[in-house]
């Protein structure tokens, strides 16, 4: 079996092992990962309502696919694709004729703290771009890169949206700029060395710009959604999730800000030490075997990585961005930039930018495995048992595939059971059908007015309230709170409509109908909170009353709501 199909198969196996109970029938609802059955298109889907257009175009793609396939299958296919695409892409980057080194790189690339934490965080769209990163590097470093080829490679990031595209741009542009032409390029005879490089950078930049339009245009049309709230700089800064501090966590590809997204048992000294040593081994392997010239030593052309300098620059830049929130001066600088322009808020959750470092470490481990395999083969070439010993060397390299699993065992089985498929309660479906059958105008408000929920039917796991997607479509906007609470810090809402609702709820005599709402969905809340809701919902008719959800409808004229 050739390298790419074998690596894809390995990725599928690792994906099944990592997801475990998440592959059961139903939906995995974890942190930011929200999939719903039969979703509908809405202004929120296209970034024209709500906060910053973070779900563009990923939500639109999922909605379109769910019109053809059950939403449960769409979610599982996307999650497995992350592992298949990432493993096979990283394996292809290792310049080795053997199968084992590529599998070593692929296994580490999809089984590490970055993938584990972002998976538990529910950020599948970012992981989709992460999975396509090796393919983007390969396309951007092609001697005669064409925009079409890079567009195909960058498609996963384009689907993922702005975070995935930002990480891809951070990696692909340096690779395109710093990859040298090894020899004369067909079709470019006698061309100056700089001209093909400029063409390559321009082609990559044009594709990245075009693929960014789905989320860039809504962001420009609604600049108020790009808030200058600097509180998130500290709230979303990289954290120490082991004994080596925040910088050590970032080198190990961990350090996510959310404690609920850290795998079980992650902070043990033995495990943390093993993960840090493995990461440092990858960096050392890249430095030693990627093809950097050293005095008195020739670099074999077939073992050199032509994109090495570009990936080094991307990894260093990404690591530097990730470290911004670690120090007080870095936090102050980023806060100043966000106040200058809200678009810099993308750098608040800075740990995501260690993605190119993950690719560097993965390929470094693969290159080290390839060098070890060549050395072993060269030292044991004497007959009659040389063939058998070389095969043994291949088995030794293949055994390294299991090392990432050994140092991060709790990533398996849905993060030790943290990811599980569940079914939405019948009350949710009944409420949605009631809303969709109603021809009268008016939007939907979700109470309690908080962003995250811990539903009993979801095992008490925190999840971004799925009501905004579940009840969306049909010309109605579903307004939910997007304020994020991290410990004692509160990252303010980016949605002007949500801010208006907060003012209405705080008024002495709040009128939700006058604020443009025909329906109110109450999907959680303590008994005390529900008594407060009764005051808000005086005059509204209770249409659906189940232990999991209540649906109320206001009669009479409903004021025209505003998404701005």
UniProtKB/TrEMBL annotation:
<keyword id="KW-0472">Membrane</keyword>
<keyword id="KW-0812">Transmembrane</keyword>
<feature type="transmembrane region" description="Helical">
    <location>
        <begin position="272"/>
        <end position="290"/>
    </location>
</feature>
<feature type="transmembrane region" description="Helical">
    <location>
        <begin position="152"/>
        <end position="181"/>
    </location>
</feature>
<feature type="transmembrane region" description="Helical">
    <location>
        <begin position="73"/>
        <end position="91"/>
    </location>
</feature>
<feature type="transmembrane region" description="Helical">
    <location>
        <begin position="98"/>
        <end position="115"/>
    </location>
</feature>
<feature type="transmembrane region" description="Helical">
    <location>
        <begin position="311"/>
        <end position="333"/>
    </location>
</feature>
<feature type="transmembrane region" description="Helical">
    <location>
        <begin position="393"/>
        <end position="413"/>
    </location>
</feature>
<feature type="transmembrane region" description="Helical">
    <location>
        <begin position="353"/>
        <end position="372"/>
    </location>
</feature>
<feature type="transmembrane region" description="Helical">
    <location>
        <begin position="121"/>
        <end position="140"/>
    </location>
</feature>
<feature type="transmembrane region" description="Helical">
    <location>
        <begin position="201"/>
        <end position="221"/>
    </location>
</feature>
<feature type="transmembrane region" description="Helical">
    <location>
        <begin position="242"/>
        <end position="260"/>
    </location>
</feature>
<protein>
    <recommendedName>
        <fullName>4-amino-4-deoxy-L-arabinose transferase</fullName>
    </recommendedName>
</protein>
<keyword id="KW-1133">Transmembrane helix</keyword>
